[in-house]
Write a structure and sequence with these properties.
By secondary structure, this protein is an alpha/beta fold. It contains eleven helices and 17 strands. The protein has helices at 7-17, 19-35, 106-124, 141-152, 164-174, 187-190, 236-240, 249-255, 270-274, 296-309, 336-344, and strands spanning 2-5, 46-49, 54-61, 65-73, 87-93, 99-104, 131-135, 156-160, 180-183, 196-199, 206-210, 220-223, 232-234, 243-246, 268-269, 288-291, 317-319.
Length: 345
Amino acid sequence: MVRFVDVPGMQRWVRMTGLEAAITGIAAAIEEDFLRWPEFDKSARVANHSEVGVIELMPISDDRTYAFKFVNGHPGNPARGLQTVTAFGVLADVASGYPTLWTEMTILTALRTAATSALVARVLAPEGASTMAMLGTGSQSEFQALAFRAMLGIDRLRIWDTDPAAMDAFERNIRPLGFDITRAHSAEQAVQGAEIITTCTADKAYATILTDDMVGKGVHLNAIGGDCPGKTELDPRILRRSDIFVEYPPQTRVEGEIQQLAADHPVTEFWRVLRGDAPGRTSAEQVTVFDSVGFALEDFSALRYLAGAIEGTDVYQDVDLIADPVDPKDLFALVADAASVSARF
């Protein structure tokens, strides 16, 4: 039997755990796994692109556990009443190859993306940061706000989106939770006075959400919207004067903001900063960029954390997903009766 967490089960788990506690727990698991980065068999995700979006598989494993996530990104979906991003994921036992957990990951991906952003910012953001600008207030924005409050104490937000309804929804969801929110009339106005800037827009296009003149000294940029070839958010001049931190360079150079730069432009892998092998923020005036495209290790960590957290709860059900005949060499026994039916006709 394989443990299966459906959407209602994931909702029950989040309610039982608490959103901020779930995010910080996942962040701790991500940090643990980044610290043992060399132990993983890693690869860039396998992406199938179309004119309207992308569908991807994200695999990774260590010597005990294999994980993958199936995820899409279709910016036009909301106009049809559909989610931009949906996902599900699987954990499997390396020793047998048997799956052990199958779960929805639309909600879980939102949690792990926010957890990763806040984990990185906790290391790279300027000391004493208290205000974050959020350019793009779509489906990920509330999770980012909660993560940055839980892990960095950020409760002052300056928001902007091209869609006023998206800002309305964000304020409706977040203001009652105790945040101080300023609604800006432009991206330029939103970033004024912010030590941290998060960009998270959905359009699958080369875009410049943030221009070079908007970014002053000492700012940390959390760039999470550019996540596939041909999709960017930052003016490349910002990148050229910043220290850039990434998850997995072979993937980020194809999908991230740095696709706009030369293939040999220097970047720092974040796991090296965590392990003390590379510097992070080294001065108050330094501009740091987390060019995040989302990497399979973060999904592995989220799945691993979830598997432990649901132990002894009622948020999952057991499903019979594995054909398992009495004699493991006699798979035909499971359908032999169907063969006899066919013979009669």
